[in-house]
Amino acid sequence: MKKTQLFISSLVLAFVLQSCNKEKKLDEVQVPLPTTEEKAPMGNPDDVAAEPGAFKMMKLPYAYDALEPHIDAKTVEIHYSKHHVGYVNNLNKAIAGTELEKQTIEEILSKLDLENKVVRNNAGGYYNHNLYWEIMAPKKGGEPTGALAEAINKDFGSFETFKTQLTEAATKQFGSGWAWLVVDKTGKLVVGSTPNQDNPLMPNMSISGTPILGLDVWEHAYYLKYQNKRPDYITAFFNLINWDAVAKKYEAAKTPVPAVK
Ligand code: MN
């Protein structure tokens, strides 16, 4: 008996609830909240622009998710559309109305007054990130060929030794900074690192010359996916190096340039 009563009561309750529901307005319908597994919609890198100024935002040569699984889409999106554009805007603001506005980024960096921290950080941030995005591409990695491969063998002994040295420079850079492959003023390839947004074009750095490859080891470059495991991010980076792009930079860097006018 009790079971039957309970069943009937349930039916009545269900009917009453359904009737109430029918009286509700349509706009009260509850939309389920997205679960954490669902991905937030990605933006488009082509929509990112710096505020008007001397330097423009470089075009990202691939989609935000193109470097997956080595660097996740969200990290690339935040890195490019928040951090990188921030450096460009702050650089433009810092040099507005000064003679630096008419100079190339290489001129600004090579003649930099290191005490000018705003220009130092943001001119560095602008140049370094342009290089970083440029020397990566989806499904790359492997080893260089041609003149660059020969130079790496000559100056490091082997590609493996170069890889070990770059990995070590990137791992041991304490706190935020960059690891570099640089063509020094004698044309030799060297590896090293710099803190913050410093780079080898700036005066009085521990590594000096023209960077042809830059590896960002700021936490913002890897923390979402790798957390504290910087070495795993560094290993993954080697799967993304676009050696053709690095080789072009090598050719340009080793060719003597006419003195600045
Ligand atoms: Mn960065």
From TrEMBL:
Provide the Manganese/iron superoxide dismutase C-terminal domain boundaries. 144-248
The record's keywords, sorted A to Z, are: Metal-binding, Oxidoreductase
User: From which domain of life does this come?
Assistant: Bacteria
Give the InterPro entries listed for this entry.
Mn/Fe_SOD, Mn/Fe_SOD_BS, Mn/Fe_SOD_C, Mn/Fe_SOD_N, Mn/Fe_SOD_N_sf, SOD_C_sf
- Reported EC number(s) for this entry are 1.15.1.1
The residues forming the signal peptide are none
Gene Ontology cellular-component terms for this entry are:
cytoplasm
Domain (Manganese/iron superoxide dismutase N-terminal) spans: 55-137
GO MF, one example: superoxide dismutase activity
Q: Which residues form a coiled coil?
A: none
The record's section on SUPFAM superfamilies has:
Fe,Mn superoxide dismutase (SOD), C-terminal domain, Fe,Mn superoxide dismutase (SOD), N-terminal domain
What PROSITE patterns does the entry give?
A: PROKAR_LIPOPROTEIN, SOD_MN
Protein family according to the UniProt entry: Belongs to the iron/manganese superoxide dismutase family.
Q: What is this protein called?
A: superoxide dismutase
Q: What is the organism of origin for this protein?
A: Flavobacterium endophyticum
